[in-house]
Amino acid sequence: MQCVVLAAGEGKRMRPLTAKKPKVMLPIVNKPMIEHLVLAVRDAGITDFVFVVGYHEQEVRNYFKDGSEFGIKIRYTVQKKQMGTGDALMAAEGLVDDTFLLINGDMVLKCADIKKFISLPPPCLGVFESSHPQDFGVVTVESGMITGHVEKSKNPPGNLINAGAYLFEPEIFKILSSVTLSERGEYELTDALAGYISECRLSACTLESWLDVGEPWNILDANELLSENLSDDIKGTVEDGVFVKGTLILGKGSVVRSGTYIEGTCIVGDNCSLGPHAYIRGFTAIGDDCHIGHSVELKNSVILPCTKIPHFNYVGDSVIGSGCNFGAGTKIANLRHDNKNVKAAGRDTKRRKFGAVVGDNVMFGINCSVNTGSVIGSDVSVAPGSFVEGKIDSNTRIGR
């Protein structure tokens, strides 16, 4: 069996984190999100992959190459213009010749679910029971067969959603060739399912675990999910006087200095410096070449490589881009006083605690304050003592 992975999109809802990289290459537990998915598929028994790439495709190609380092074989095909999931799959026509698994590259699936899924006869659709089905395409199911599919609706007919995982035969390409442009100006894969549904041929496979990584704050959810069941792996140096209460993964050349307290699960990349007297709280992932300094507190955050948070800073429930620098005393708030869900760029994060999304190469002066739900573009400069909130465009200067 083969696996086709859709990895061509930019991920506009992920901006500013996708300004220079495709969404599927954003890190979760310090590895590109697509890597976790590919390894789960490999461990389920599939080693022949087709990657549909497009936006900043070279980053995907450079990382995975021919797949041999991961124990798989990868061939690439390009979706030249992002015109929908149906169009993306059509780019793989001619590269698959038997039953194949099709998955979106921006989700988290567990190996056990994939094994169960690929044991079923095609065509088959992976479905998941969601607490907020209005955000997804919703399916209705009777006796294990899909009887209807409704795109995002304020009043969905149920809570089973289309999880973006499919088991197809090559006949799907013939069906797709007759699909016309949707109202959004795209060729929708879901439109190709209509015939299967009307003929009662599309079965449903309920997934036990699934997570869509469609918004920046979903990176925190995925980071927590994939941090489960990790074990200590310390390749760097932990000085005397460091207290670790939980799991620590520490990369080569990294140092945790005396007085630092780590609780929960913490993942630290290569060539990092933590402390002295830092406080790192659960489900925090710190990329390569970062400096987390004296009396800094990080909580449930993802920090991309080459970022410096060096003195008396607090970062909670946030995603911080690469190459950023935090002036002494700069802090990010993560809780509204009314305890309502935090909104970011007008979108409900569905999180009571969420700090900020910070793009690449953002420079903060000393004693800056960043309010909950702030979305700060790349290459922003923030003057000392500034208050930041809302959505800040890239290349903006705030304050004096």
From TrEMBL:
<keyword id="KW-0511">Multifunctional enzyme</keyword>
<keyword id="KW-0548">Nucleotidyltransferase</keyword>
<comment type="similarity">
    <text>In the C-terminal section; belongs to the transferase hexapeptide repeat family.</text>
</comment>
<feature type="domain" description="Nucleotidyl transferase">
    <location>
        <begin position="4"/>
        <end position="227"/>
    </location>
</feature>
<dbReference type="InterPro" id="IPR005835">
    <property type="entry name" value="NTP_transferase_dom"/>
</dbReference>
<dbReference type="InterPro" id="IPR011004">
    <property type="entry name" value="Trimer_LpxA-like_sf"/>
</dbReference>
<protein>
    <recommendedName>
        <fullName>Bifunctional protein GlmU</fullName>
        <ecNumber>2.3.1.157</ecNumber>
        <ecNumber>2.7.7.23</ecNumber>
    </recommendedName>
</protein>
<dbReference type="InterPro" id="IPR056729">
    <property type="entry name" value="GMPPB_C"/>
</dbReference>
<dbReference type="InterPro" id="IPR050065">
    <property type="entry name" value="GlmU-like"/>
</dbReference>
<comment type="similarity">
    <text>In the N-terminal section; belongs to the N-acetylglucosamine-1-phosphate uridyltransferase family.</text>
</comment>
<dbReference type="InterPro" id="IPR029044">
    <property type="entry name" value="Nucleotide-diphossugar_trans"/>
</dbReference>
<keyword id="KW-0012">Acyltransferase</keyword>
<comment type="pathway">
    <text>Nucleotide-sugar biosynthesis; UDP-N-acetyl-alpha-D-glucosamine biosynthesis; UDP-N-acetyl-alpha-D-glucosamine from N-acetyl-alpha-D-glucosamine 1-phosphate: step 1/1.</text>
</comment>
<dbReference type="GO" id="GO:0003977">
    <property type="term" value="F:UDP-N-acetylglucosamine diphosphorylase activity"/>
</dbReference>
<dbReference type="InterPro" id="IPR023915">
    <property type="entry name" value="Bifunctiontional_GlmU_arc-type"/>
</dbReference>
<comment type="pathway">
    <text>Nucleotide-sugar biosynthesis; UDP-N-acetyl-alpha-D-glucosamine biosynthesis; N-acetyl-alpha-D-glucosamine 1-phosphate from alpha-D-glucosamine 6-phosphate (route II): step 2/2.</text>
</comment>
<feature type="domain" description="Mannose-1-phosphate guanyltransferase C-terminal">
    <location>
        <begin position="272"/>
        <end position="390"/>
    </location>
</feature>
<dbReference type="Pfam" id="PF00483">
    <property type="entry name" value="NTP_transferase"/>
</dbReference>
<keyword id="KW-0808">Transferase</keyword>
<dbReference type="Pfam" id="PF25087">
    <property type="entry name" value="GMPPB_C"/>
</dbReference>
<dbReference type="GO" id="GO:0019134">
    <property type="term" value="F:glucosamine-1-phosphate N-acetyltransferase activity"/>
</dbReference>
